[in-house]
Amino acid sequence: MCPHAPKSPSPRATPEGIVHDEKAQLDFSQSMSYGDYLQLDAILNAQKPLSPAHDEMLFIVQHQTSELWMKLMLHELRAAIRCVAADELGSAFKMLARVSRIMEQLVHAWDVLATMTPPEYSAMRPYLGASSGFQSYQYRCIEFALGNKNAAMLQPHAHRPDLLAQVQAAYEAPSLYDEALRLLARRGLAVPASHTERDWTQPYAENAAVEQAWLVVYRDPKQHWDLYQLGEELTDLEDAFRLWRFRHVTTVERIIGFKPGTGGTSGVSYLRKMLDVVLFPEIWKLRTDL
């Protein structure tokens, strides 16, 4: 055969042929399918726009998917708190790293919502009533688990005893940082009793002695390696949380400017105040004093 003669074309694989060759299961009349396992009928039918506005679907999906990520975040945070309390730091580190990555997903979700313009939002805003993101009970449980306690934030859930019980439990429990400080004390570091046995419902108050305890860790990482790593996991987490809050502020300002929020807050001004909240103050201060 002439080496320059055109070769016969190879038979082209078709999607149907590939599926047949792989012996993929195609009949799910008697077994569980992908959609069954994920309960996609319930999930994909949970979007119920109230307005005729095209962009309301984006608004609903954005917030519903954020709530799903927050569900996973709470699952990981609660387990991490239990692990820190039990001195199981290896497991806690994996969970806290996952929480930080989830927070990154939430940060990037604002990029999609930011494609909504002011006129597009205005077309659907009247249909939101008094509903607002600060009423999210999952978000409130996350804030409480991270130590930002505020009794007033229980009230939006008073009409739902089942949800109030969850938020109340998070409000009354030691936060992640509380358990971290109790761990430092168990390891022999000089954390004052005022910060290891206190009223967990009160907002955390920065303490110079706590910073000194962390400084012992950071000045000798090899001696206190797992505590040093815990400090850095907390830093990563708060760093990611700050970015989420910042993107929230900028996205809201981009879409509604300085109009009041639907839930009665001052809107952007309220969100900017949240940027000043520091969850783990000694972890940040020690960087200056180290």
TrEMBL record:
It is an enzyme of class 1 (oxidoreductase). InterPro entries: Trp/Indoleamine_2_3_dOase-like, Trp_2-3-dOase_bac, Trp_2_3_dOase. Heme binds at H248. Its cofactor is heme. It catalyses: L-tryptophan + O2 = N-formyl-L-kynurenine. Substrate binds at F59, I60, V61, Q62, H63, Y121, R125, T262. Pathway: Amino-acid degradation; L-tryptophan degradation via kynurenine pathway; L-kynurenine from L-tryptophan: step 1/2. The keyword Heme applies. GO terms for molecular function: L-tryptophan 2,3-dioxygenase activity. Keywords: Dioxygenase, Heme, Iron, Metal-binding, Oxidoreductase, Tryptophan catabolism. Binds 1 heme group per subunit. Pfam families: Trp_dioxygenase. Its EC number is 1.13.11.11. Homotetramer. Heme-dependent dioxygenase that catalyzes the oxidative cleavage of the L-tryptophan (L-Trp) pyrrole ring and converts L-tryptophan to N-formyl-L-kynurenine. Catalyzes the oxidative cleavage of the indole moiety. NCBIfam families: trp_2_3_diox. Belongs to the tryptophan 2,3-dioxygenase family. This is Tryptophan 2,3-dioxygenase.
